[in-house]
Amino acid sequence: VVATLPGHETRMAALAQAVQDSGAAWFGPTHWKGRDAIRLSVSSWVTAQDDIAQTLAAIELAVSKMLLDGI
Length: 71
Prior knowledge:
Blueprint: E1 2-3, H1 12-22, E2 28-32, E3 35-39, H2 49-69
Antiparallel strand pairs: 1-3, 2-3
Helix pairs in contact: 1-2
């Protein structure tokens, strides 16, 4: 999956780092169609619902912190 937050493309590397630092998942920063984005895989046979929930929670927390910190 390649994803970005429209209007916040420059924050994607910081988002990837925050999620990596949480230990919930690993995202790789990437560039797609001239925009900064994140790259991740969610199609492993060992991925469980709890893994998805933890990853989404880590993303939500990272985005919230970034918005509060003005990153």
